[in-house]
Specification:
With 334 residues, the protein is an alpha/beta fold. The protein contains twelve helices and 14 strands. The chain has a seven-stranded parallel beta sheet with strand order 6-9-10-11-12-13-14, with no helix packed on it. Strands 1-2-3-4-5 form a five-stranded mixed beta sheet, with no helix packed on it. A two-stranded antiparallel ribbon has the order 7-8.
């Protein structure tokens, strides 16, 4: 009777050993599929990972294979990674060769509205060759960190993308501004009908790190419809304010647009008077104080006005702001 018992014990130990091996294999596989920590990647490793289908991670812009620790990406590795129809994130790249950009441009576009299929947010600059290659990309590529854009074809490509368009530009020429102003990314005709934001804005164009704007570039941006966000603009010349005030919002839906200038901590009387002619929603949350004359100029604005950054109000400024028909403050006026 002892043998069967010993056999059973032996079989049990064998089963436990097999289970341990299986668990180790699963854990090893899981680690192999966690690509977010990889700092280098060979063609062979890329092929193995693609076959195992690494786990995706979610973000505001969709689900991605997060290869964000990679600092370099060869065309050969990119060729392997773009074949599966999975969104790719390479936010760790600070340089992109024209050859690799050409391969990435072949990545299939995501079918989900507003979802990016390529994230390259670590790139601050692009060579002319890389910009030309990326301009051929059909889906949505994110370039939040891009500080300079001189390629008209790439600007045109970005303006055709669905979803919000955000860039980190530190300078903006009138030519590029004119192309970006054509962005209509939140109104895209699909089989199920046009896609819209809840606020019905046809576009959200956000340009970070732009601390100044020429009147010519502002004139070009005035053609933009929807929400324009220039939160790093720290000064506003009257001529620039007058150009931005020409924005008309959404012609098709006859709705006013939105202009967000939260980087302004102060505004001159002349600029306030010019900006007040804008008919849409005006967001100036960075302004902390206003004199009575400037407040009176802003009070002539007809759309919704956000001044929630004001910390104190003199009786004269208080009285001037009371004339505004749709004012938002931190504390409502009595």
């Amino acid at each position: 009777m002892k043998r069967p018992i010993m056999g059973a014990l032996a079989n049990g130990r064998w089963s436990l050993a097999l289970a341990a091996v299986a668990l180790t294999s699963v854990a090893s596989s899981a680690r192999a599929q966690d690509v977010s920590k990889l700092t280098t990647l060979t063609v062979e490793q890329a092929a193995e990972l693609s076959a195992k289908k690494p786990a995706t991670k979610s973000g505001l812009d969709g689900y991605f294979w997060p290869f964000d620790s990679l600092t370099t990406l060869s065309p050969e590795v990119a060729e392997v990674l773009v074949k599966p129809k999975v969104n790719l994130s390479f936010n760790g790249l600070t340089e992109l060769s024209p050859e690799t950009a050409k391969v990435l441009a072949t990545h299939a576009a995501s079918p989900a509205f507003g979802t990016a299929d390529l994230r390259l947010n670590g790139l601050k600059k692009l060579s002319p060759g890389a910009a030309k290659a990326l301009a051929a990309h059909e889906g949505m590529v994110l370039l939040y960190g891009l500080e300079k854009l001189s390629s008209v074809p790439l600007a045109q490509k970005l303006a055709r993308q669905w979803g919000e368009l955000r860039l980190g530009l530190m300078e903006l020429s009138p030519t590029i501004a004119a192309e970006l102003a054509k962005h209509r990314g939140t109104e895209v005709s699909k089989k199920e009908g046009p896609q819209h934001r809840i606020d019905r804005a046809v576009s959200v164009l956000r340009i970070d790190r732009l601390d100044s704007l020429t009147p010519e570039a502002a004139e070009a941006l005035a053609a933009h419809e929807g929400v324009l966000v220039l939160n790093d603009l720290t000064s506003l010349e009257p001529e620039v304010a007058a150009s931005l005030a020409k924005r008309v919002g959404n012609r098709k839906l006859n709705r006013s647009g939105t202009l967000v200038l939260n980087g302004l901590s102060k505004i001159s009387l002349e600029s306030a008077a010019a900006l007040a002619k804008f008919s849409g929603e005006l967001v100036l949350k960075g302004i902390t104080e206003l004199d009575a004359a400037t407040a009176a100029a802003l009070a002539t604005h007809k759309g919704r006005l956000h001044l929630t950054g004001l910390k104190t109000l003199s009786p004269e400024t208080h009285a001037a702001l009371r004339a505004h028909p749709n004012l938002l403050l931190r504390h409502p006026l009595p």
